[in-house]
Specification:
The protein has 261 residues and is an alpha/beta fold. The protein has a single domain, classed as Divalent-metal-dependent TIM barrel enzymes (TIM Barrel), CATH 3.20.20. It has 9 helices and 10 strands. An 8-stranded parallel beta barrel has the order 1-2-3-4-5-8-9-10, surrounded by 7 helices. It has a two-stranded antiparallel sheet with strand order 6-7. Helix 1 links the parallel strand 1 and strand 2. It is globular. The relative contact order is 0.14.
Amino acid sequence: MPVIGLSTSSVYPESTAHAFSYAARLGYDAVEVMVGIDALSQQVTAVRQLSEHHGIPVCAVHAPCLLITQRVWGTDPWGKLERSAEMAVAVGADVVVVHPPFRWQKDYAREFVQGISGLEESTGVAFAVENMYPWRATQRRALEVYQPSWDPSEHDYANATVDLSHAAVAQADPVAMARRLGSRLRHVHLTDGTGSAKDEHLVPGRGDQPVASFLRHLADTDFAGHVVVEVNTRKSTTVDERTADLAESLHFARTHLGLDG
């Protein structure tokens, strides 16, 4: 059975500590830790203590790959991935989520596919490469900013992540991507989008992506990886509003994975 987790990014601007509290209170199976500007997310001991305190395991660590986290854990991209694997091992997670390199990271991009394979062999941790998207100023103008590409199904990665909001921006069919990946699909970011140029990370069911069909595909293929809710709740003005969004996302996942019985 898949593990249904909550990404710590789903409670921003609240902290990593709050994410564990929400996950425990709402009945999530696990947490994915987004290593970011929140100092707690960068500290192995703090993450382990939060997991133990709330009785919620950590299923994955998201490496600091965003533009705003360029200096988190240094500037060497391979060093960031090694530290992410060290955290994963220390807190009991079996997946590190990683974005493909930006095209200006030429040396990193050139060695990326082989380097990811080498890290998996040396650390014993699955590095699930996430689908991204072309950057679009308009519907007609797109800039390819990821190398070797934004679509992990085009390359020989052993493990991959499908993010449904990213698929929406790329105007790509996430179910078709999952089929191409087959057993290499290890991790999912459950969210939604409308196909705009903005990475929206909507609560599943509030966009126009085939999110329910995607989850039914996972159920039909006996997917046993992680389905992690990664939604944007920044517009929530109260704890009750954020709680409702996270509870709705969990219910959506359970319902369409056939786990609500």
